[in-house]
Structure formats: C-alpha cells, structure tokens
Amino acid sequence: MIPRYSRPEMVSIWEPQTRFKIWFEIEAHACDALAEIGVIPKESAKNIWEKAGNVTFNVDRIDEIERVTKHDVIAFLTHLGEFIGPDSRFVHQGMTSSDVLDTCLNVQLTRAADILLADIDGLLAAIERRAFEHKLTPCIGRSHGIHAEPVTFGLKMAEAHAEFSRAKKRLLAAREEVATCAISGAVGTFANIDPRVEEHVAAKMGLKPEPVSTQVIPRDRHAMFFATLGVIASSVERLAIEIRHLQRTEVLEAEEFFSEGQKGSSAMPHKRNPVLTENLTGLARLVRGMALPAMENVALWHERDISHSSVERMIGPDATVTLDFALARLTGVIDKLLVYPNNMQKNLDLLGGLVHSQRVLLALTQKGASREDAYRFVQRNAMPVWRGEGDFLALLKKDPDVSKLMTDAELEEKFDLGYHLKHVDTIFRRVFGRA
Amino acid sequence: MIPRYSRPEMVSIWEPQTRFKIWFEIEAHACDALAEIGVIPKESAKNIWEKAGNVTFNVDRIDEIERVTKHDVIAFLTHLGEFIGPDSRFVHQGMTSSDVLDTCLNVQLTRAADILLADIDGLLAAIERRAFEHKLTPCIGRSHGIHAEPVTFGLKMAEAHAEFSRAKKRLLAAREEVATCAISGAVGTFANIDPRVEEHVAAKMGLKPEPVSTQVIPRDRHAMFFATLGVIASSVERLAIEIRHLQRTEVLEAEEFFSEGQKGSSAMPHKRNPVLTENLTGLARLVRGMALPAMENVALWHERDISHSSVERMIGPDATVTLDFALARLTGVIDKLLVYPNNMQKNLDLLGGLVHSQRVLLALTQKGASREDAYRFVQRNAMPVWRGEGDFLALLKKDPDVSKLMTDAELEEKFDLGYHLKHVDTIFRRVFGRA
Amino acid sequence: MIPRYSRPEMVSIWEPQTRFKIWFEIEAHACDALAEIGVIPKESAKNIWEKAGNVTFNVDRIDEIERVTKHDVIAFLTHLGEFIGPDSRFVHQGMTSSDVLDTCLNVQLTRAADILLADIDGLLAAIERRAFEHKLTPCIGRSHGIHAEPVTFGLKMAEAHAEFSRAKKRLLAAREEVATCAISGAVGTFANIDPRVEEHVAAKMGLKPEPVSTQVIPRDRHAMFFATLGVIASSVERLAIEIRHLQRTEVLEAEEFFSEGQKGSSAMPHKRNPVLTENLTGLARLVRGMALPAMENVALWHERDISHSSVERMIGPDATVTLDFALARLTGVIDKLLVYPNNMQKNLDLLGGLVHSQRVLLALTQKGASREDAYRFVQRNAMPVWRGEGDFLALLKKDPDVSKLMTDAELEEKFDLGYHLKHVDTIFRRVFGRA
Amino acid sequence: MIPRYSRPEMVSIWEPQTRFKIWFEIEAHACDALAEIGVIPKESAKNIWEKAGNVTFNVDRIDEIERVTKHDVIAFLTHLGEFIGPDSRFVHQGMTSSDVLDTCLNVQLTRAADILLADIDGLLAAIERRAFEHKLTPCIGRSHGIHAEPVTFGLKMAEAHAEFSRAKKRLLAAREEVATCAISGAVGTFANIDPRVEEHVAAKMGLKPEPVSTQVIPRDRHAMFFATLGVIASSVERLAIEIRHLQRTEVLEAEEFFSEGQKGSSAMPHKRNPVLTENLTGLARLVRGMALPAMENVALWHERDISHSSVERMIGPDATVTLDFALARLTGVIDKLLVYPNNMQKNLDLLGGLVHSQRVLLALTQKGASREDAYRFVQRNAMPVWRGEGDFLALLKKDPDVSKLMTDAELEEKFDLGYHLKHVDTIFRRVFGRA
User: Fold this and answer.
1) ipTM score here?
2) pTM of the full predicted structure?
3) Is D144 annotated in the active site?
4) What would the CATH number be for the domain defined by D98-190+205-257+270-350+419-435?
5) Which of A311, B104, B155, C86 is 20 to 30 A from D400 (CA-CA)?
C-alpha cells in the first residue's frame, strides 16, 4: 500500500484508529451480551460505552505498552482501562485475542468489499454508457492480433460489462465468505463464554456467527476472498490491455484522455502514452500475486498458529487498497476514453475486403462446393490480397471455379458490413437487458 | 497428471476419445438446430447422427491429419467427413473452432466438477462419521503448537466438515462459472450463425448460453474455477497437516492406517510414516500453483488469442485429476484413521493442570482481583509447573494472594475437564444440524 | 508434460527405464566403494555389474511389487535381486532410499540442464544470425506501444541475445546447484555408511558430494533450479510477445513462417496467425507457475518429510520438458522468421517526422532555450501532426520562436535517420564481441 | 512494507530523499562526463555539484509539481532547476527518464543486497556459534515426524549453515544481476548521448554499463533478483519451522527466548509460544509471493512499457525490507534460542531402543541372513515395542532366529549412541572448514 496507488476511504479502513474503534465495539457489544445473561453487571456494560464510546484512542500510547507486553490486544485493553477505570475488569471476559482480531479483520474486509462493490458499480455504469454510445460503431475484430471480421466498439464494452458483472457476483460471494464473527474463547469451545455473546456481537457488527472456530476463524474463507480479488484484478488487466492495444500508434482506435499539463515523456514531447492502463497491468500482477500467500495461510497448525498474521497485515490493506485504486482508475479511463470511429473505419478497410472471406467460403459450400474445395478457392485468392497484390472481390470474380458457383452480384452481397452487426441488439439485450 | 496420482474416471474425461465425442455432439446438435431453422436439410442432420453417432474415432488418424493441417478441429472435421460422406459439408456451418473447443472444455470442466463434488460428499460423510464417533473424545487443543485448553477429536472433525462444506459450496459456484456454451462464430457476432443454434446446443449439453463471447468464452470464468480448486486444495493441506502432527512420535494421537505388506522405510522397519498426508501436502502445492497461470490467461488480446490453450491443456487435466485423487486419498485416510484416545488423555495430563490456568484467572477476576493482578498471580504459579517444578493446583492452594480470594474447593472445581465440553453439542448442531 | 509440447530426448530422461538405470548405477558404484573399503566382497561388487549392468528392467514387474510393498526403492531392489541372486544382499548396505532417489533426481536435473543449455546455444546462434542479417535494418522503436525513435531490427535481436546469454549463465549456476550427490544413510549421519562411498558415487555420476544432507538433499537447491527455469521462461515470453506485436495486421513488420499445408482458421482462410509465439506465451505461464511449489518444498519437517516428492514427480518432468520444447520452438520461430524491411520503413514514416522531436528539443536547448520553453515549442507543433494536421518539419519552420533559434537547414539536419544508428556497432560489440 | 516488520537502514534506501539524492548523483555525474567530452561547459557541470550537491530536496514541492506534470522525473528536474538556476538546462541532456529511474533502482537494489548480505553473515555467525556449542548434543533425528536415528543439535545447525551459505552465494549472484547502469537515451540507441557518459556514471555509482538497453534495463535481471529473495525466504521458513516443531509442548527440545514483560496469551498466562518463528513463516510466504509479479514484469512491450513500475514501487521496498527484517529476527532467535539437552535425551529414550533397529538389521544381513529375512526378524520385534509392549533389546535377545545369528553382546553393541556420531566431525569440516 503506497500513497500513489491509494484512495483515502479504503486506506482509512486499515488505519490504527479504525482498528481500535472496531476492537472497542466488539468488546463493548460483548459486554452488553454478558450483562444481559447476567455474567457482568449491566451498569458496568453501560459505563463502558459511556466512558470509551466516543474517545479517540492514543495510538502511540498503545504502541508504547505493546513494546513492553509484546501483545497488541493486551496493550489495547490496558489503554482502554485508562478510560474506563475499575469496570475494565469486566471487559474481554472469557474471550481470547483472536475473538477480537479475527472479528475485526472480517469487519474490515466486508467494509473493503463494500467499497469495491461500489467501485464495480461505478465501472459498470461507465462501461454501459460507452457501450450504448458506440453500440453500432464498427471496428475490426481481431483474433491473434490479426484482422478477423467486423465487430463494434459497443460489443467490446458489452463483453467488459458482462465480465465485471461476474466480478461483482464473485465479490458478493467473497464478501459473504468473510462476513463471520467468532467470540468463542480459547480453542473455540465456548468454555468460558456463552455462545449467545457471539450471536449478539455478530448481529451488531453485521456479521454471522462462525459455525465452528478453533480460536481463529478458518482461513479458507480469507483465501477465497483474496483469490477472488486476484481474478477481478485479472479482468482489470484484460480491459487495460485492450486499451493499450487500441492506443498503439499503428492502430490508434482509442486513447486515454490526455490532460493539459501532462507530459508524456521527458524526451519526446509528442508522445501520448497509455500510462494509466500500463499501470493497471502492473497493479493486476500485484493483486494476483497475493492470492498465493493467502492460500498458504489456510493450513494453520492444530487449533491455530499466528503465521497468517504477518501475511494479512500486509495483503489485507495492500490487496484491497490496490484493487480499489485500480477499479477507480479504470473507471476514469473508460469514462473519458477518446474513441476514434474514423480510425476504426480506416483499419476496417485495411485488408481490401479479406475480412469477408468467411462469408464467401460459406456461400460456396451452400452452392454445392465441398468444404475442402471452398476453402481452397478462397485461400488462393486471399493470399495475393494479403501480400497487397490485388483486391479480394475483383480476384474472386475472376476465379473460374468461383464464377461457376456464384454470380458477381451474389459475391458483392457478401461484402456488406451491416451483415455482421445484425445480432448486436441480441447480445446487448443479453448483457444489459435492453438494446 | 501422472498415473500415480490419477483415478480412471477423471482421467477418462480428458482422453482424446472423450474430447472427440463431445466435439461430435456439439457439431451434431448444432446441425439439428440449423436444420430446424432451415439452414441445412433435416435429412442431413439426421444422417450425421446416424453415420457418426456411435463410432469410435481414430485418434491416430486425426493426429496424422493435424500434422499436415496444423489445426486440430479441421483435422477432426476431415476425419468426421470420412464417416459422414457428402453431408459433412453441412457440419460446422458458420461456426468457428473456438465454438467447439471452448464449449467442449466447459463440458469437461463441469463433468470434472461433478466428480469433485461427489468426492467432497464422500469426504464429508467420512468426516461426519468420525466426528460423531469421537464427539466427546477429549484431547488437548493447541495454539502455536503449545497446549492450550481441552477440545475433542470430534470438534477437529467438525471444523473439517464445516470447511469442506464451504469447499462444496464454492465448487458449485465454480461449476456454474464454467457451465456455459458459445456457438457464436468468428469474433462472436453470430454473423454467420443464428443465436438459436447456441441456445439449442447449450440446452442439449447441459450448459447455459454465454451472454457475450468474443470467439472465445471469457477466461475470467476459468480463472475463477482454477482459483477455487486452489483454495480447496489448501483445505486438503490443512487437514493433512493436522494428521501429520497427530502422528508425530511424541504426540501419536492418531495414525494413518498401515496395511500389512507396507514397508515404512528401507532402513528402519519399525517406522510408520504419515506418507499419505505428506503426499497430500505436496499435491496441494501443485493444485494451488495452477491458479496463477489460469489468472494470467484472462487477459487475452482483443477478441482472442490462443495463449490460454497450452495452459489449459496442462492444468485442465492436471488440476482436476490431482484434486480428485487428493480428495479420494484424504477420504480414505479419514475413513481408516487410527485414533488413540488413551494417548490423547496422556497428552492432556502432560502439563500438570496448566491447561486450566485461564479458568483460574477468570475466577480470580470475578472474585475481585484486577485483571493485571490475576494475570500475575496465575503466571507466577504457572511458570514453575511449566519447568516441571510442581503441580499447578497444589501451588495455587499455597499462594496467599490466591487463597485470599478462592477456597481450595473453588480452585478444585476449576480443574474439571467436563467444563470445556459443555458446548460441543451446540457446535455440532451448527455444523451437522444435529448433535 | 503432454506429447504435444514434448521432445523425445528430454522425455527420455524422465522415463522409468532411465530412472531405474540410474538407480542401478548409484547402487553398483556404491558397492564398488563398499568393496574397496572392505565392507562387502570385491567379487560381489563385480558380480552385481556383470549380472545387471546391461539388463532392461521390467517396469511392470517393479510396479507390481510396489503395489504390495508400497515402497518404490524396495520394489526396485527386490526386482534387482531377481537378476543378481544372493549377492543382492550386499546392495544398498547402510543406505537409505533417499540416497538413491535424491542422487538420481539430481542426475536427471543436470542432464535436463545440459539439454536446456544446448537449446539456449541453438537459440543464441539463431538470434545472432538474424541480428547481423538485420543489423542496420531500421525500424521504429516503441515505448508504451507508441512510436518513439528509430532503432534497427538487429538491435532487437541483440537485446534478445544479451538476455539469453544471461539465461545461459543462470542455468549454469542452477545446474551447479543441483549437481550434488548424497549417500549418507538414514538422517544423513553416515552412521552406517562410510563417507568415502559418497565421494566415489559422486565422482562416478558427475556430481559433488552434498556437504551436509539430512537423509535428503536440501530442497533450496531445487527451488533455485526451478525458479531459474521460471525466469528463463519469462524471457521466452518476452521475445514471443515482441513477435506477436510485430505480426499484428496493422504493424506486420515480421511474421512466423507459414508452411504450405497449414490452415490459419477453420473459418477465415486468409489468416496467418502468430500461433507459435502465442503458444510460447502460455508455456511461459506454466513454467513460471512451477517456481512457487518448488519454493514451498524447501521447508521439509526435521530431517525430512516426503511432501516434496509428489511436487517433483510432476514439475521435474513438466518444467524441463516444457522449457525444452519452448526454447526449441522459439529457435525455430527466430530462425525462419519472415522479416519485412519495407513495412518497417512504412511504419517509420507513419508519423510525419514526429519521431525526430527529441533531437529538435535538444537542439533548441543547445541554442539557448530553457528546457521548459523548448519543450513547449516542440509540443505545440507536435500535437497537430499527431492529429494528422500537418507535417512536423514544415510546422517547425513556420514557428517564430523556433525560427529565432534554428535555421531551416539546421532543422532539416535533425530529421536524418542515420543519426540514430551511429552507435549500433558499439552495442553489437558489447553483445557479440564483434560488429 | 509496514513499520512492524521494518528496520530503519533498509527503509531509508527507499525513502524519497534517498531516491532524489541518487537521481541527482546520476544526473551530476552524467554532466561531468558530458563536460569532459565537450558537450556542455565544464563550469556548468561543476556548478551543478556546488549548487545542489548538499541540498535536502523538498519532497512535498516535487510532489506538487508532479501533480501538474504527471511525470516524476520532470518534476524533480524542475525542482532541481530551482537550486541550480540557468545551468539546469544542461542537466539530463540527451537522457531519458528511464536512464535515471532504472539506474537509481539498481543502485537501491545493490545497496539493499549489501544489507541482506550482512544480515546473512550475522545469521551464519550465530548459527556457527550454536553449532559448535551443540556439536555433540545428541537428539533424535526424525523423518516424516517419526523418530528415526540419532543426530546432534549441532548437525541441525550445520545444515542451516550450509543452506544460508548457499543463500549468500545466490544473493551475490543476484546482486551482480542488478548492478548495471543504463544511460542510453530514448529507445537505448545512444543517439543523443555518448556511450562514454554511461561508462562514467556506471563507474561512479558502483555499477557496470548495461550492454544493451532498450530505454529500460531488461527486467529478467530483476526477476532473477526477486526470485532469489523468494528462495532465501523459503530457507528462512525452513529453519523457522524446525524451531516451531522443537518448541511443541510434547517435544520441547528448544524454545524461543522469552523476555520478562512478554505475555504469551491474553487468556492463558502459562503459554510460551514460538511467535517469532511463526511470524517468519508468514513473512516467507510474502517474499516468495513477490517472485511471480517480478517474473511477469519481464515481457515488456517492444522497447519498453511502464507496467513494471507499479510492481517495483511495491515489491522493491517490500521484498527487501521484509527479508531484511526476517533475517535479523531469525538471527536473534538462533542467537538466544533456549536449547534443552535433557529433553533431547528424554525424547531419544522414548522408543525403547527402536531407533537402533537399522543397525540390528544390517548386522543380521552381515551375519548371513537375507535382506528379506533380516527385515522380517527386526520388524516382528519392533512392532510390539512400538505399541509400548516391551523393550526392543530384550525382545531381540529372546527371538530364536536372531539368537541363531547374534550373541547378546553383539546385540548390545548395536545400541551404542556414540556409533551414530562418529562422522559429525567429518560433516563439520565439510561445512565449517573445521571441527
């Protein structure tokens, strides 16, 4: 997590003050439940909220205590006691540090997921707007980087929309994976704390009780969460690379917006580089790479070890902050993307009609040629055009094997661009529910 | 995929004959739909099924043709033509290779998912049986590898059951991710093939139409699939490592079943090694490592490139075959696991009562000691016991600060094992719906 | 490891027969050393070579024995005994399975490394030939996919040559990492086997004695080996992606060789796709992904566990076979690459002289303009050219701020292509030792 | 990079002030060379050092400029100009941003490598000290977590020493990989900057000239660097896991040092947990996970794209800072490790002599039994001992098949511990050059 690739709202989730606030809420809600079932005095539970419910914790002071105790939750509880006074002895009754730490982490991850979900919604809106704007803007479709057949720029956006709709669905599932709360005490047996406390805290913190915890909340949940972020980051990369390709000098069908003061290169002032999408490519590599350590975190020893902690201290903030930044940056790129329909048309015309070869091939078979013959007829006329030696339609008209099967008019009909766009509405309806 | 770690049912999904069979079905169903909408003669569609519906394809012959054409689908279609005769010109009309390849891959992945789901069901059944068998078999719970407080072996199984129930849910979602069919032609525009063909083939092959494909089915779906397998493999590793720990010479609370002819070591004949679970640890590393290449596959260029193909040819079989084998092996391990309650009790008694320290700590605070004082009283008596110098209960009884607050009888009550097991039923009901 | 991406020489290293042959050699050399130091009869050692030195082992028979013993080395030794007779009791004296398995693996990996080193030599030769062929073939250099300044195709090859020279150096180091032999007995103490046996076997098998083994050869060596393959695979990817870019329809500066019978697409017969380099991109992902499991293999428990074994059974063959295939394929691609100097020139001319902007910028500062002013003058003339509105040289001549500092002749001199190529020889001498 | 797992010296390498200082030095040295070859006035080059050689750069001011220019090097140069005045127009002549950025990164990485090398030296010293301290402290060697045969604690340390000696050698190679300098201008052709400038800057910054750069220094070098850190981190994990195992309650052969104020658990005050080595396990996962993004960085497009930058901004500091912290922490753990020879002896005795089974097996074969018979005799006496039903030596003496071959005295000799330690000195001499 570095400032350059961070946005404040997501960063704030991971700040010490936020963490201590969540710790306090977990402890105080637990006290309420303990009071309700008669383990501690109701007055004390009330007092805890009153004395510490609105304080700003002194992060430096807590760090100072931790340097002695070498235990972060004990340090916090000691500091909390400074606000609460004698009633502090009722705080954390029967609980273990993991109850606080793991429940807090899941609160943070669900909040992070909520921001990411909003990010995706914003991205989907931008994509949808550009999709309809360019629903029928024709451009060449490419397989293997080679011109294939016509598509539209709107279809490219539709694909992205469908992909990020899936991303959203996956993220909702990932959020649900980590939206659990454990207040089950040492080794998770509830020996020293009633399960009703967990139920109360879970409800108050917007979580569900973890069915069975072993002091810790099981880490397969978190592995799934971070793996999902990795897949979403890979979709960010896909759209980013599409734009990088479209912005290539020789292609130039679209460009990232270029602001006034911006300088493309310290040496070559004419350059307008797709630096935002290149940056997104790198950020995707980072987020993806964090899935593996998260998966290695699953196999903790026996009822728990703490090897997961250092990993999560780093990838918890890093993966969510980086993906948040990436989604927001991608939204801006799509929103302001400069699209050049004229250049799209120029590229469509580049191959002298070769992109219609398949239609001719099909027509020939329908006229009775075998698939192998039709393929041969088409290919022998396509190859010279590919080398820049002639026009595809003209050559076909002159080919006696072709002429035997198709008239010139029939051949001409096969070169109509509109033919390729007749199902764009079908696809739009599938993706957007409207066309 | 190597024979040693493979099971035949899963392997057969990935055999050439299976693949060609699926290819044929896709093509033949497409012909039915094309005939239904009048593009090709109904008689021809019928003839295709009749001539080739029950044949065994000649894999060597197809390979031979591919060596010339350097194109696998064309090679197959050529071979298919040898069965079908002139009607073969109606096969593959308006389709592109990816329609066949991608739909086939998704058929294979959904079939693989079905086997894996059955594997998980089998594993869950074995875990559940052992969980109830040992619901109240006490053993020490360990955090950081250090004795903490009592749990039961049934609780360990309950945790595993909850974890693999989540694995099942994730796998169902992953299966749904890849259960799509694309028959959309070159660059996915349906220019040369009616969308109704896709709908028909999808229904027949047990899939849903891909809302928008770009010649290929988008690879974020597959990335999610393989990432999910990686997470499940990590859960396999977790349970495997638990067993490896329990089988350590000094712990010996459980052992993998040891068959009669088996030799543990070429040098040390007394050895009984947890080789199955060690093997599972390695297999988990392999499956997990395949998630990354799958994520890198997402960002194909423009409407498609074929870089994903070599990755999928390897990880498609490898990840599913390896995970299938691992789940089955783990099921066998759990099913036949030798559990040693006597050793569990011996280990429980190892620390001279220290595992009850928290209960004493809590009791002291409830009697009016501050948390800090109680912690100090307990720790100063615990440390000598830890060093093997005395019995915890005896020392506590002699500590004047403790005696001031608790009678001997009150102290003794805190050393009751049953106290820790009182919520086992609660947890079992959460996990299994019964106790 | 799948046939499609395999070459026989590398595959043969990993075949059971090869493995058993190496096992035999290790055992027989050990017997020689044991005989030399008087532990077993010299006649027996000689007899072992004579009876089994030239046999073909029966792989099925060994598998059959293993199904009973569940131990591969014991199964092999039993089978070996069938050839040798009573003297077989002297085989494997004081040794442990790992002595055989680990030393064998390292023999296989060093042989694999030797093939890979030869592959790299072949690739370097192909690259060098093409580099000199096109040393002065000018083409546009691109940063961010955007035209920057002129380079030559030979320089692109020189970069690749330097990169694969580094790959070779790394591979030599990786080979040295795994070229060790351990014959140290159970837990590696040499309690039952004299260290002189290890020295003898190491020398005979072309390895060095492992300074300290713990029954197993430490796996950091293998992690380094596979990590190195991952880095080399990434260099394969880099060159593959360069070619994919150059083959794009709009760029078309180079093409993979296209054989006569080859079909680019089942639907679009004109297509010539960079399928080999796309394939290489995927293979790179696979090899790279194997570095992680190899690193996870390092932390074996205590003196050894066997979790590394399943990983190595898979990635040992897979990583070496795949990289061997990839290097060979890349060599073929480079060797036969169709290079189009005319298209390179066409692309160089595409931007109406903008690629010379930096030279103008520098000249302006040398004439006394501040860097900021010079940048501004250049950029305001570059932007219209970028939009296709005018010629860069013409606009500069008309700019009064520019005219104040530079004459038309001075401006024209800045548009000379040769200027950019004056240090090509310098670079070639650095890379190839000649120019 | 988070404060908790960071040490100031390594952190300072990555601070903005350090970076700007290095940028300045690169620029100023380049000016010296440019002056030397007559491109800019010598007086100006001198002036640049005088005006800015000792300044503290205003990081906030540079950030402020970058927010407008969106280009970090231009922002720095603008700020630099504020110190230098008119001569600033001679700075960065013919250079491109990457010349500064990439050379700076490599200076930072070599400095980081130097710290890591010193870390490893410190670790090796600690390991060596403990190795000789416990050269002959016997403990049980374990394979598969199961007691095998005796080793010594010193041998465990010797293995770690050999492993980190390899780590040092690898790190030296990795340092050499990234110790290069590129001052080659746009697209790396030296068109606007003489190669002698590069040579001068390289020499002054302690680097070698990059033989061929393409505006950027090729990223295979950095991939190798980070992959090497990943392998070293895996060795950290190995030693950490060894200690975690030894500290298990049932094993307790060693313990991390436990300071006075430290609290092991908020709930269980007696607990002494291996939290440092658990933490190291997690840190290893993190460093290892960064190897993949670094490898993905290799395949930049054409002469360069900037996707590597965001990755390096994160993993550059994160990997080096984390590994530095981990190595230092591990050194402290080893240095202060509490070693319990009495417990080691207790564990050695745990199996009633079974650990000597192999010696008996060998002796039986040497007395004439076939390997299969000997194995059977030993195993049938070992199994009851394993179940706790008897003493191994006593049972062997009573076995008639054994008695036929060995006298009681001969059997007793096989139970001598010293037998296993006779080659410890040999191994120590191999590892440490002394014994």
Assistant:
1) 0.94
2) 0.95
3) yes
4) 1.20.200.10
5) C86
